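Audit log entry. Action: structure prediction of a protein-small molecule complex. Ligand: pyridoxal-5'-phosphate. The ligand was supplied as SMILES and no pocket hint was given, so placement is left entirely to the predictor. Protonation state taken as written. Sequence taken verbatim from the request; no trimming, no tag removal. Recorded inputs:
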Amino acid sequence: MPGPDDGAAAVLSIDLTAIVANYRLLVARLGGAECAGVVKADAYGLGVAEVAPALHGAGCRVFFVATLDEGIELRGLLPEAEIYVFNGLTAGGVESFVAHALRPVLNSLGEIDAWAAMGRRRGPLAAALHIDTGMARLGLPPAEVAALAEDRFRLDGAAVALMLSHLACADEPEHPMNARQLAAFRDAVRRVAPDGARLSLAASSGIFLGADYRFDVARPGAALYGLRPQPDAPNPLAPVVRLQGKILQVRDVDSDTTVGYGATHRCTRPARLATVGAGYAYGYLRSLSNRGSAHIGAERVPVVGRVSMDLITLDVTAIAPERVTPGALVDLIGPHNPVDALAEEAGTIGYEILTSLGRRYRRRYVGAAAPVAGG
Ligand SMILES: *Cc1c(COP(=O)(O)O)cnc(C)c1O
């Protein structure tokens, strides 16, 4: 009988209940500090329209996105939440931030001046202040912190509700950058923190660095979505994503057969190959060519040959034939091959695997999101 996924070659299941469980685990870990939710890049590719209300239903009230557009979209989903925009003010953006009740993360003295000027006209406007303690990416560099310390009046009109910085090496607990950035953050807090501003340093990995790093608000993204916060420790978070590809065709080939574009794989003995409907146009990275693996049940099957646009080829010689038939599903990401493992095979990080998940997969959300309280 035809099922609902018959038109799709691959199915992406996103477990909202697991996201909520991860949120709760982080809340417990934080021992009193507030747990915000980072939902930039469409909630790391998992769908902000589903993920943000689920987090809100779990009690999350503070959210971060990267861009103004993402903030406007999120405001439509969560009328009451505190929404911060990491990229800060862009030219012409001030009015839009005000119109949508979004809070810019102020990354420079110029942005502080623009926001404070607006606040002096309209009444204080909430924002976050970002101090660069070692990323050299966004945020006030040391010279601007010094200038601000000399002239605190510059912030009048800006209601700084949050002062934050971002760690460069939080996934390496022994890295000396962590302590150095912690000290730099504390120093900046001493010099420029406005009265009443809450403090925030930790993203996902930072939460696991210890109590010193937790401050008032943590900003996890990856951990909510099940990625491991520390590569060298067991992952305490629940897996969120399952990605299943459909077997389209199975063939038995002779030794010496080559597979796929470039003939980069040559069978050294007779083999059984399964062709699966997923490829780089789905976000199944081409770097997984001859390196990735899928699972059929608990058994690992290697990707052989190059990943093409719509297809990959698996060597399923070792699997019982009745489990490898056209229409059967194999796990590209699943209980035995988590996102982080696939990322290692691809030579990247789980973040890139998630945010590359294309719109071509049939998406299924598992676990009903609680209704949004208060609107
Ligand atoms: C993306 C981002 C986060 C979330 O990081 P995770 O590692 O996904 O938890 C937090 N803070 C800033 C400034 C970010 O850019």
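Audit: result stored. Residues 370-375 have pLDDT under 50 and may be disordered. Residues 176-192 form the longest helix (17 residues).
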